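Researcher: Next sequence.
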Amino acid sequence: MASYLDLDTKNGQRIDIWPVPYEGTVSFGQGTSNGPEAILRASAEIETWDQDLGVDLADMAHFPTLPWFEPPASGPEDVVRAMDEFAGSVCSLDRFLLTLGGEHTIALPPIRAYHRLFPDLAVLQIDAHADLRESFQGSRFSHACVMARVRELGIPVVQLGIRSLSREEAEDIRIAQGDGLLTFFAHALPDPETGAEQIREFLGGRPLYISFDADGLDPSILPGTGTPEPGGIPFAWLQRFWPLFFGSTRLVGMDFCELAPMSGAGVVSESVAVRCINRILAAYLRSGGGNAPS
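Model: Next structure:
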């Protein structure tokens, strides 16, 4: 077995890994800055062969690792500014960036970079929280505001697994539902087949960026996250969803964030994170990748 760091065989699609250990605006549990290292370490122990799909991710992609981001200590606005500069320099029409966080704020700069390249970009957000607050604890660049900043760009957003939000966010979702925003609450998830069909119809063939917050999953399977919420997406639901969803959709980039490894609790959370990442990439590349570049 080999970690993402070792899977640099030049086979298949290049997927650049960008570790961003930032947790400057976390508001509950700590430890998301340790997420990137934990995911990379766990990836050495998780098989790249997917028995359900009958493919090996190691045959379809290689994973060069970019320099680790060093967050400036001057606050979230400067962090986002520095990330914007780097993401803008590495993202291109034929370059796939997998960003490992860190808190959810880290999703905004790569989304912005890909939006400049793909003006019709859409975002699929997997999350327990809506993240649609205008500001939180004095910052517009809090982890609780990331999708509000994305929506300001006019980017359509699909939300999957939401189950914790403010009254104001609930009203925003009610007003915008179906008009640039499609929210699937965790308590009312359709079956994977129906969900895949509805999301594809909403996207309308747009290029896609996936932002995966670890707390979107139920904490019974992934407890290591800063703000766990019961009643999340079942692991089996998501595993079934991705092969049904991909086909004509082009995935241009993604992030996995909000993993907070738990001391004394083994490595279950980071192992689940790797399994989730591997399934998304394997299902996408197996589908033909929406004519994804190699």
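Model: The two ends are 23 Å apart (CA to CA). The mean pLDDT is 91.
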